[in-house]
Specification:
Length: 309
């Protein structure tokens, strides 16, 4: 039984990760300040003997005995990470620093939940890990994008300078049950709007693309990366299926049998025009690729939202 710290464990991805780690028989310490996460996501785990919840902010140092750390604490939805931009950058940097110090002290392995946002608005398509990105340092997404980039740098520096056993994954748009209905991200927005019969908000002309990975597939890749003894990354984890936002809206309307109309809203600045992961490295090093098609994952997610709204 390993002692595993999951920061951001009460969030969307983090709560699914806690489920998986408990299922594998580990002792899980779920740390969260409940900024975007909620106790509802982990209430079913509180009675498990191997699970503990600690309300804490990763911007402050934290001490415990651990074998592994998954560092996920950070708001991921643009409206939330832009609500307190300075706070977001501090979470990225100080959170990574504090958790790396903890890993160093314990000789623990530590995995950073990085993001496809490190590629910014990419000029290379699809994006391999070797692509260095096209990121604006002074835009509304910068607090998050540059925060995540410097966190990767800190991970690399702790690895080289202090020999810390680091792992970096770059997560591409992930969706599934336990997304917050008010989260603001596209999959949850479209499903909630369709189920309520409200207008579907297409930002810009809807021709921008994203590649959507179902959360169970992501968790499998994340787990494999942590358990891999000789590959530090960074590695892309995402589903290479690429869709425009108009295509996504059409699928959601069809699967919910909704009569909602599409309305067009201004495109937020620096919104990447396209995004698709090159997952050759994940296939080679982790023998991982996603198995859940967008429509199948949307059906599961729609069922979840039907239950909560
Ligand atoms: P989320 O907002 O649902 O979860 C983030 C969790 O971190 C929440 O529980 C929140 O309360 C907690 N948190 C935020 N700031 C904190 C702080 N200072 N101290 C302690 N806890 C804090 O987001 P998510 O989609 O579950 O994303 C999880 C991680 O994965 C994030 O690091 C995000 O950047 C990364 N990621 C997610 C996606 C995606 O599509 N879901 C894509 C790329 C990267
Ligand atoms: N988007 C949209 N309508 C919405 C929410 C988002 O058209 O109600 C678009 C958004 O402009 C972006 C894409 O959907 O081009 C994905 O947005 P999301 O916030 O989910 O993720 P990110 O931009 O961080 O990839």
């Amino acid at each position: 039984m390993k002692r595993i710290l999951v920061t951001g464990g009460a969030g969307f991805v983090g709560s699914h990760l806690c489920d998986r780690l408990i299922k594998e028989g580990n002792h899980v310490i779920c740390l969260d300040n409940l900024y975007t996460g909620t106790m509802d996501h982990i209430s079913h785990l509180l009675s498990q003997p191997g699970f503990e919840f600690v309300e804490h902010d990763v911007r402050e140092p934290f001490d415990t005995k651990v074998d592994q750390i998954y560092n996920l604490a950070c708001p991921a939805s643009p409206p939330f990470y832009q609500e307190d931009m300075v706070g977001t950058s501090k979470t990225c940097f100080l959170g990574a620093l504090n958790m790396l110090e903890l890993a160093k002290k314990n000789g623990a392995r530590i995995l950073q939940a990085s993001t496809s946002e490190v590629y910014g608005d990419p000029e290379m398509h699809p994006q391999p890990e070797t692509y260095r990105g096209c990121v604006n340092t002074v835009g509304i997404r910068s607090c998050y994008d540059e925060g995540k980039r410097v966190a990767e740098t800190l991970f690399f520096s702790y690895h080289l300078q202090h020999g810390v056993d680091t792992r970096i994954i770059r997560i591409f748009n992930t969706y599934g049950p336990r997304m917050n209905p008010d989260d603001g991200r596209v999959v949850s927005n479209f499903i909630v709007q369709a189920l309520k019969g409200e207008d579907i908000t297409i930002y810009g002309d809807g021709s921008q693309t994203r590649s959507f990975c179902y959360v169970d597939d992501l968790i499998e890749g994340m787990y494999r990366m942590m358990e891999n003894d000789d590959f530090c990354g960074p590695v892309n984890l995402g589903n290479p299926g690429e869709f425009t936002m108009l295509e996504l809206a059409e699928k959601v309307l069809r699967l919910t049998n909704s009569k909602s109309r599409l309305i067009y809203c201004p495109l937020p600045s620096d919104d990447p025009t396209k995004r698709r992961p090159d997952i050759s490295l994940a296939k080679e090093k982790l023998n991982w690729q996603p198995g859940i098609k967008l429509e199948d994952g949307l059906v599961k997610t729609i069922d979840y939202f039907k239950g909560i709204i």
